[in-house]
Amino acid sequence: MNDHSHQHSPRTLPRYSATFDQHSISEIERAAATGIYDIRGGGAKRKVPHFDDLLFLGASMSRYPLEGYREKCGTDVVLGSRFAKKPIELKIPITIAGMSFGSLSGHAKEALGRGASAMGTSTTTGDGGMTQEERGHSKTLVYQYLPSRYGMNPDDLRQADAIEVVVGQGAKPGGGGMLLGQKISPRVARMRTLPEGIDQRSACRHPDWTGPDDLEIKIEELRELTDWEKPIYVKVGATRPYYDTALAVKSGADVVVLDGMQGGTAATQEVFIEHVGIPILAAIRPAVQALQDLGMHRKVQLIVSGGIRNGADVAKALALGADAVSIGTAALIALGDNDPKLEAEYQKLGTTAGAYDDWHEGNDPAGITTQRPDLEARLDPVKAGRRLANYLAVLTLEAQTIARACGKNHVHNLEPEDLVALTVEAAAMAKVPLAGTNWIPGQGGY
Amino acid sequence: MPEFDLARSEVRELNQALHALQRETNETHWKVRNPGGKHALAVGLDLPITVEIDGHAGYYCAGMNKEATVIVSGNAGVGVAENMMSGEVRVKGDASQSAGATGHGGLLVIEGNASARCGISMKGIDIVVKGSIGPMSAFMAQAGNLVVFGDAGEALGDSIYEARLFVRGKVSGLGADCIEKEMGPEDREALEGVLAKAGMDGEVTPDDFRLYGSARRLYHFNIDNVDAY
Questions:
Q1: Among residues 119-158 of chain A, which lie with CB inside 8 Å of chain B?
Q2: Cα end-to-end span (Å), chain A
């Protein structure tokens, strides 16, 4: 009997380590085989406290709602009213984040311009200069001023509707851009003054200023160059939002753009994306606090980004004190990125729809993150632009729905008092009470 | 000759007056008195006019210049002629950091010394420095020619792309992927052209200079170059 007992006794199931999970093991194997870090596009994929951890309270005995389909709920926003002679007026508080021609195809940039213009909002250039297609299809175009200064020239600066000085971005605060050789096509190379086909690594620091005192003088130069007409934004990755916002204001910014770690990039090291910077949920209140402490809230506008997906996210960001939000990854998905209809092609690339992030390799079957003409031709910029406009309309309607339910006749009238948190972490970060309590961690002495 | 006295006027008035000029203007030679080290003087010019600045200039003098000639009779602050597209900027004294940074074209002449990061990320500009240049000069320099009569500081040409660096004096050290190269006929022709444009072709001969440029080892990610990343 003893001889056979081991055949019938219960056995434990194979157990994966929570620490050395399958992804960690695959990364160790990949690193050991190649000797180089993993590079990918997109933003942080790990689960972090986010807008899903907040809820609106809506109207009740003490709050009066607006009629959902009849009463007006404004969504317009003015950006750059502090110093610029010509501030930007947008119909919706949702802008398109900076994404370069080079990282994106020409058709994708055109589609972004078409969709945003249809909804009365702005698009933004990226680390590769301004293309005429982009200028032509974007009614309101923000021109990024980056450390690389690729394609930077005074004519484009004057053609822009606003200038965004990029200090950092949420996916890689402290890091420069990256565009691998597959995407340095002849046109991209020419625009960037680079040899074709090289792996391009952009600088992480600006070449002619260091620190907020210098930035103040740089902004003065940009204003002089453009006769003080253009709003000047300063974009930072979310790390130390209170001080970064205060210093951006001190430097003379009209608008502060704050990008959380969920915000995407065309390409950078996976370790950078997942381990540097903080979630946008944790960054908004300190930034707003800095503006309030300086008497600048609503005078210097705050745009936040990083993981905005639906109108509830938009409404929550505005309720926490932002003036507008910016979308990048969601806009690309609206154009057709990671479309399940392309599953067979994603499988050939060793991935699956919904997880595709090898944007740097330039083989995007959707024709968005590529410079290959055969792939780019798949993206119809008119139809894709329409999809983006539809999506922006839905985000706006959803945000309005929530605002009306909270009794607000403008989305900017949403406020932290309309929110509660589902988790202690989110309550602490967003500085709103844990649902069902009046407890905001860190306040009231405990 | 129109004159602008910055002891009595604002920089904004100067720049707006210069920006308002039409291509057919007769006011092609301007003088700026009492600059007092003010910032952003004569930025964004885009006509073939001459602006003489009678004294010291602050940060970003002649930034993004196109076609114009800007002459600074004193010293210039950080980022003189930054992102210049064309034209000429001449500094009679010394220049601070990042002179000619990211310049796409045109000629920058510094008759004194230039501090750190001279020609950083240059994209086609020609720069001539009669004195010496500081450390980290020509960092990530993409295109154009940097000609230095004196010495160069540490880490010259770090992560350089396709710019040419001609140095007559001593080089304290080369940055990652920057090497000394043999001067070929095209390089020599480029050097002679820059010296002639700067009006200094009689002062030195190309044989006095050594050429530095990219080894092109960092153009593609390679684990064997890990020490340089």
A1: 148-149, 152-155, 157
A2: 63
Chain segment A383-422, per-residue pLDDT in tens = 999 999 999 999 999 999 999 999 999 999 999 999 999 9
Chain mean position to CA A10: 51
* Total domains in the fold of chain A: 1
CATH code (residue A226):
3.20.20.70
* Residue pointed to by tokens 């940009």: A222
Find, among B122, B178, B160, B100, the residue nearest to A150 by Cα. Answer: B122
Cβ–Cβ contact A76 with B under 8 A: no
Closest CA to B161 of B201, B224, B216: B216
Token pair 């945000």 is found at: A399
A-chain CB neighbours of B123 within 8 Å are: 149, 193
Give me the mean pLDDT over the B82-96 stretch: 98
A20 domain-assigned: no
| Res A7: pLDDT | 67
Structural domain includes residue A298: yes
Any domain includes A264 = yes
In A193-279, which residue ranges form alpha helices assigned H by DSSP?
211-225, 241-250, 270-275
Q: What is the ipTM of this complex?
A: 0.95
CB–CB of A168/A235 below 8 Å? Answer: yes
| pLDDT tens per residue, range B46-76 | 999 999 999 999 999 999 999 999 999 999 9
Provide the pLDDT for residue A301: 98
Residues 6+ apart with CB under 8 A from A438: none
Q: Indicate the pTM of the whole model.
A: 0.95
Contact assessment for residue B72 and residue B92, using Cβ atoms and an 8 Å cutoff: yes
Neighbouring CB atoms inside 10 A of B52's CB total 18
Helix (H/G/I), strand (E/B), else coil: A208: coil
- In tens, the pLDDT along A29-61 reads 999 998 888 999 999 999 999 999 999 999 988
Whether A2 has a pLDDT exceeding 60, the answer reads: no
Mean pLDDT for the stretch of residues B120-131: 98
Residue of chain B whose Cα is closest to the Cα of A202: B140
* Percent of residues, chain B, with pLDDT higher than 70: 97
CA distance B65 to B88: 8
Gap between the terminal Cα atoms of chain B: 53
Query: Could you tell me the two tokens for A153?
Result: 């020239």
Select the residue from A85, A184, A208 to test the B interface by mutation, using most B Cβ atoms within 10 A. Answer: A208
pLDDT digits (tens, 9 = 90+) for A135-144: 999 999 999 9
| Interface probe, candidates B21, B51, B102, B104, chain A, greatest A C-beta count within 10 A | B102
Please give the residue range of the domain that contains residue A57: 46-418
* A199 touches B221 (CB < 8 A): yes
Query: At a CB cut-off of 8 Å and minimum separation 6, what does A429 contact?
Result: A49, A279, A281, A282, A285
Given this model, what pLDDT does residue A187 score?
A: 84
> A241-250 and A280-293 helices cross at what angle (nearest 10)?
40
Residue B229: its pLDDT value, please? Answer: 59
Q: If DSSP states are collapsed to H, E and C, what string results for chain B? A: CCEEECCCCCHHHHHHHHHCCCCCCCCCEEEEECCCCCCCCCCCCCCCCEEEEECCECCCCCCCCCCCEEEECCCECCCCCCCCCCCEEEECCCECCCCCCCCCCCEEEECCCECCCCCCCCEEEEEEECCCECCCCCCCCCEEEEEECCCECCCECCCCCCCEEEECCCECCECCCEEEECCCHHHHHHHHHHHHHCCCCCCCCHHHCEEEEECCCCCCCCHHHHHHC
- Give the residue from A220, A217, A215, A221 showing the smallest Cα distance to A234: A215
Q: Assign A370 to helix, strand or coil.
A: coil
Query: Could you tell me which CATH number the domain at B3-228 has?
Result: 2.160.20.60
